[in-house]
Structures are given as structure tokens and as C-alpha cells.
Amino acid sequence: MRKRIIYQIDSFTKEKFKGNPAGVVVNADGLSDYQMQQIARELNNSETAFLFSPDSTDCDGVIRYFTPNTEVPICGHATIAAMYAKAIEEKLDSCILKFKTKVGILPFEIIRKNDDYQIIMTQGNFELSPAFNKETSSKMITALGLEQSDINEKCPIQIASTGHSKVMIGIKNRKKLNSLSPNYADLATLSKEINCNGYFVFTFDSDDNDILTYGRMFAPAIGINEDPVTGNANGPLGGYLIENKIIASENNTFEFNGRQGQKIDRLGVIKVKVTIEEDKPKLIQIKGDAVVVFRTEIEI
User: Distance of alpha carbon 85 from its chain centroid, rounded?
Assistant: First the structure.
């Protein structure tokens, strides 16, 4: 039996019970895959992050992520939560930590300011798949509760990824976004066909000059009907917008704020930065606030 320190963190917000909740086990050394899955199921967040000591000289630690029913390769909001918990637990100063994930070793920057922290996550390599054919797109649109007329014609329906892929679906207005009631069973079935578990529906319909996009993300195939504020959707969205030339950039940099979680009362904001080389996304980073909801210990 060993005491495990567990945090519940809300990411992409400074207000408790908003943003995206994640569990964090800051001292996970020695836990089995089964134990991690059981902890993730018990906490019942969309993801729980587990922090391990480094297993090689080229990293500062290892991080793994579990939904209530499966392991996933990478997770944006759980990374923000994990680094925030680590910073608080160890009273860290500003620093960059390299953590080994299932998509490689990534640098996570901890920024200390006024006895609090912000976290910058560098995401994995950006990849963009070809647009779906009309038949598959039509199935997806129907399963999401959309009509073809709702789709923003500037936005091809295709998979974008920085390590954990999402389908990008651009629509015309926020009223429609907030009224969506997807058929989760059909989306889960379709996920097996397209080999992608997440559907990110977004719109540029914003009445706030500081917010470029509003979005909702559905991933029923991995037990997440709706994720409140998704780093691995908003980050790839930045790459998608640049590669498809939907948004113009200046000085080889594109930055924007994405807001998510409005419909389910878990509003949060993600700051996305895309560094561009030769008109292509080269580096994608997300920056976020976080807040501790609770810290506890369990013996396992």
C-alpha cells in the first residue's frame, strides 16, 4: 500500500467548476495499467493524467493519460492540469520540462507569475488528412444533427491531428452549434470506419473580438459524449485553418483564442499559437490557466 496524491484540476479557466476537469496522480510510479484504469474510472473525468519518474536521461518524466475506459496517447487539458499540479506540489519556478508521451517527448513550459502558474503545451507534429468524400461527410453531418446548409463552405471536413486526431467540422452560426443534439451511437459507429474518435464542430460566429472561434467536441467512441474544452481539438484547428488558408497569418505566426463549453456550462478559453514555415504549420502550442478543485490522498 502506498499513498497516492491526487488532484482534481479545472483547465482553461480560473473559475472552479468551469473549463475542463482532469484528474492528476502526481506520484504514479509503480501503478499497473489496471490500477490506472480503475483510478480514471473512479474519478470519472474525461481524462486523468499519471506522472512518473523519468525512464531515460532525455526526459524529466513520463506522462500517461486514461479516459474512464481506455488509454489515450495525449490530452491537452490533462497536460495543463498535470503540469499545474506538479508546479503547485513541488513549488516550481518558471521552467520547461520535457515529458515522454505516447507521441514522443514534448516540452511543457511552466510560467510562474504572482504565486500562480500558466502552462504552455507544445503539441505533437501536425497532420492533416484528405477531405472526406460526400458519402462519409453526409453520414457525419446527419449523425451530428446538422444539415448540409449549416456547413461553412470554406471549411473542408477532414481529420486534423497533433497526436490525438479530431474531425474538423466548420459551421455557420453559434445558435446551431449550441442546439446540436448528436446521435452518439451513430458517431461511435462512424469512428470505427474513419479511425478517428473525436468530432470538433466549430464556428467563427463570435461577438467577442478576443475570441475567434466557439466549438463543441464529441467523442462517444471513447466514452466522452461531450468534452468541455479540448486542447487536442483547438490546437489542431489552428493548423487546419493555416494549411487550408482559411485564415491569413502575419510574420509566420498565427494566434487566436478558442472558447468552448458554453452549452454545458463549463466555459473555458484556450490560447493557440501556430508557428508557420513555408505556409505550413510547423509548431503548435496551447496556453491555459488552471485552478485546483481539490487535492486528496488515497492508499493503493
Answer: 17
